[in-house]
Design a protein that fits this description.
Number of domains of chain A: 2
Largest interface: A-B, 51 and 51 residues
CATH class of the largest domain in chain A: Mainly Alpha
Number of strands of chain A: 2
Helix content of chain A: 55-70%
Shape of chain A: elongated
Strand order of the largest sheet of chain A: 1-2
Strand content of chain A: under 5%
Number of helices of chain A: 10
CATH topology of the largest domain in chain A: Four Helix Bundle (Hemerythrin (Met), subunit A)
Largest sheet of chain A: 2 strands, antiparallel
Distance between the termini of chain A: 55 Å
Oligomer: homodimer
DNA sequence: TTGATCTGCTTGTCTGACAGTAGGATATTC
DNA sequence: GAATATCCTACTGTCAGACAAGCAGATCAA
């Protein structure tokens, strides 16, 4: 082994805090402890600059950081608003696709891993409010079965309700992010004859397991459901798209 | 229902592409199709500005975006380098904590959900190379058991090797991100007498299950392992920290 | 060869400028 | 008086120019 200096680990490159980072951190902290709440408009750039005693360029670079973290949004015209607790995970997941470092197959597999366990937890923890949301989603799906938009939106609601029934916000976020990316693929299988009906039926089975608090059955039903959906998507997309780096655009 | 205009959904606010976004997208695309590869140094700001025919401020704002997405790093002195495929998910996950929208409990639960399934997949798909990595990690853990740093680094290696044995890059990234956040908590339990030894032993059991391609046993062993670790962490941290919004700093 | 000094170049930062535009205030029209 | 047109202001988005600090390579000295 090479000779070792005392306190070897201590010698990391010394970090010079850049002004724009300071500003960004400050703003993030303010959002973190709710001094800036979702919906609030930020002061103008000039005001921020004078308040922080920095140049406008530093403020702007800080704003770009917050923006790309999904914390604020540059509303068409001018002022900024704190985003309504949107999902930073979505962005990163999308980025993986943009960088061609993830395929549909992988994404779907993650979903399966996660959601199978999620539904089991949900079955144990669901409250009456959760059940109500799920029922509503199933109803919406039934009523909107003729409209891809309504149908798929309701589908999303159902799965999100399950995720949220775990009372684990990270799980909910993850599911949200994953579903967002899968959305386009789901549109493609909507057109398979009988597919929406089958999904609806499977949702009912999942729901009934959750209702009974039967985690094990919920798991089984979810596996069935996801396997079928996966099978359908694969059939329609074909192996190429499935294994390639799809760019699932248009957010909802 | 309200009267409905034809093509209702088509009327979304028209998006004006901002210069800095164009520049950022362009650069991201270049990284995406590998025209800029990890390790490459970007041209200087001035050169980018003249090449893209934009002002330096636009370039800088674009760079801030890439930076906060973890695609480039502002190396101490000056020039930029494309980051070595680092993890955008880590950033977002960390952000959730900064914003106090996730607790230790939740994070650990996600890890459990994920890793239990992951180890099962890994048991089915592991190659000889994967096994070698795991063995090496176990050896390192054994030899470094007296040094928290070495021990925990090896621990991380073991779990990452499992994640990568799934051949699913999203799984690997997720695990990496989660572990990064948990790192600090793991340091705290290192000091529990006998804890490292027990972990080591459990790792050996998990490894043997993976070796036998016994997915179900791997799952069981992993549950045992994670439950014990969770139990230890909880005992040390106490319920308060467990349920509070810990900021698990210092990346590794 | 080693060490010191000088000279550009690059980043980080600030300031000033200007076009485009959103929104409110004001004037105009019926 | 209500609806409509017009004007003003202020803010963002963008650029250009300036300057300090620091690094890297070149040059020079020992």
């Amino acid at each position: 082994m090479a000779p070792r200096t005392v306190l070897d680990e201590g010698f990391v490159p010394v970090e010079k805090q850049k002004t724009y980072e300071l500003v960004a951190d400050h703003l993030i902290a303010m959002i973190g402890d709710r001094r800036l709440r979702p919906g609030d408009a930020l002061p103008t750039e000039k005001e921020l600059a004078t308040r922080f005693r920095v140049g406008r360029s530093s403020v702007r670079e800080a704003l770009r950081i917050l923006e790309s973290k999904g914390l604020i949004r540059s509303l068409g015209k001018g002022s900024f608003v704190v985003a309504p607790s949107l999902n930073p995970l979505s962005e990163s997941l999308l980025l993986l696709f943009t960088l061609r470092e993830a395929t549909m197959r992988e994404l779907f597999e993650v979903r399966k891993l996660l959601e199978v366990q999620t539904v089991a937890l949900a079955a144990e923890r669901r409250t009456r409010a959760d059940l109500k949301r799920m029922e509503q989603a199933i109803r919406d799906m039934d009523e909107g079965i003729a409209s891809p938009h309504r149908y798929i939106a309701a589908d999303l609601q159902f799965h999100l309700a399950i995720a949220e029934a775990t009372k684990n916000r990270i799980v909910a976020r993850l599911m949200h992010a994953i579903r967002g990316l899968l959305q386009r693929a789901l549109f493609t299988i909507y057109d398979i004859p009988g597919s929406p009906q089958r999904s609806l039926e499977q949702h009912r089975q999942i729901f009934s397991a959750i209702l009974k608090k039967d985690a094990s059955e919920a798991r089984t039903r979810m596996i069935e459901h996801l396997s079928r959906v996966e099978h359908d998507i694969r059939n329609i997309l074909g192996g190429k798209a499935w294994e390639q780096y799809i760019r699932p655009l248009d957010e909802v």
